[in-house]
Amino acid sequence: MLDARPTATCPAHAPADHPKVTTEKVGVLLANLGTPDDYSYWPMRRYLSEFLSDKRVIDYPAWKWQPLLQLIILSKRPFASGEAYKSIWNHDKGESPLMTITKDQTAKMAESLTALYGDQVMVDFCMRYGNPSTKSKVEAMIAAGCRKILFVPLYPQYAGATSATANDAFFRALMEQTWQPAARTIEPYFDQPEYIDALARSVEEAYAKADKKPDILVCSYHGMPKRYLMQGDPYHCQCQKTTRLLRERLGWDESQITTTFQSVFGPEEWLRPYTVEHVAELAKQGKKNIAVIAPAFSADCIETLEEINEEIQESFIHAGGESFTYVPCLNDGAAHIAALTKVVQANLRGWLD
Q1: CATH 3.40.50.1400 matches 193-327
Q2: Dihedral through CA 76, CA 79, CA 80, CA 86, nearest 10?
């Protein structure tokens, strides 16, 4: 990424045999969920095992969960998940769309931050699960001379299973360092005006291109067990506020937009309404033309390209729906990069001004 080549000099007034010290930089480390290295069985199994073994994602006791996960779930699920990944895979580059998009986002963020701060910053990305690992990128930044690191989980809304577990991996990487850099993490940016405006513009563009104007916009957020909400996780409330702010920015009334949750997993109740069920209900109620946007995802991935554009669309059409418009994630669009740059700028104050 941005100028990772360290320059090293001997400190002033130090003896001649003093080890050289790299020129100080500020690191900006973007973090996303992760991706398997390939869609074949063993890479899928490794990725799913790491993801589903995370106690913030599945908080059941290990003695109960791990035998079920390792002996039953991971004997079958890598095949089904692999087929889903294969259907969306970037075969030209040999990687998932999430990886391609995150690389593009990082390159554009590097350009944006270089324009502001010159060679004082180093921009890179890591994945919470899979490669490149958070640990490897923290080590690379420190080796390149980053004495301060801003960690940027690419999740607009905070959730323990996303933002917090990404931060955990960052802090664990710092624990292994002899000379730790100063460190910051960003607050969730779900209500930042630039982010809301970028969402609204993506909706306006999609509506302008749609063959039939959608009757309603479904804001589909990644789900989580309802129990997490009752334990104090703010994710549900932040999702609801994102939808409200988006509606206000678009100048719509409440009948034109709704909030749902997708990707339900396991037997317990998750946040409702479930997207896959709700879109079918909309079709039965006469909402024959709908649009779906995924505001919790910073980049298109398996949950948007396969789950929304295939499974959820199929549920809608099967129930009598006619026109389904998917509004892509903000990805590496100019408005998204500008919004993220604003967030990073605010969090670099005092380090770089």
Answers
A1: yes
A2: 170
**Sign of the CA dihedral with 274 first, then 279, 285, and 287 last:** positive
DSSP 46-90: HHHHHHHT-TTT--S-HHHHHHHIIIIIHHHHHHHHHHHHHHH-B
173-204 residue pLDDT tens: 999 999 999 999 999 999 999 999 999 999 99
Rounded CA separation 93/91 (Å)? 5
Q: Output the pLDDT for position 266.
A: 83
- Beta strand pairing call for 289-293 and 257-262: unpaired
Peptide bond just before 132 cis, omega within 30 deg: yes
CA separation for the pair 179, 113 (Å, rounded): 26
Pseudo-torsion of CA 317, 196, 95, 107, nearest 10°? 160
Inter-axis angle of helices 193-209 and 334-348, to 10 degrees? 180
Give the sign of the dihedral formed by CA 106, CA 107, CA 108, CA 111: positive
pTM given for the model: 0.93
3-class DSSP assignment, residue 309: helix
Question: What is the distance between the terminal CA atoms of the chain, rounded to a whole angstrom?
Answer: 22
pLDDT at 265: 85
Burial 23-43 (b: 16+ CB within 10 A, else e): eebbbbbbbbbbbbbbbeeeb
Nearest Cα neighbor of 103 from 127, 82, 84 is 127
Domain with CATH 3.40.50.1400 in the chain: 193-327
pLDDT at 23: 78
Q: Reduce the DSSP state of residue 16 to 3 states and report it.
A: coil
**Structural tokens at position 155:** 């999740």
Q: Three-state DSSP class for 217?
A: strand
- Per-residue model confidence as pLDDT tens digits over 200-217: 999 999 999 999 999 999
Give the model confidence (pLDDT) of 328-346 as tens digits.
Answer: 999 999 999 999 999 999 9
Q: Residue 171's pLDDT is what?
A: 98
Here the tokens at position 252 are 């719509």
Q: Is the pLDDT of residue 6 over 70?
A: no
According to DSSP, the β-strands at 21-22 and 8-9 are antiparallel
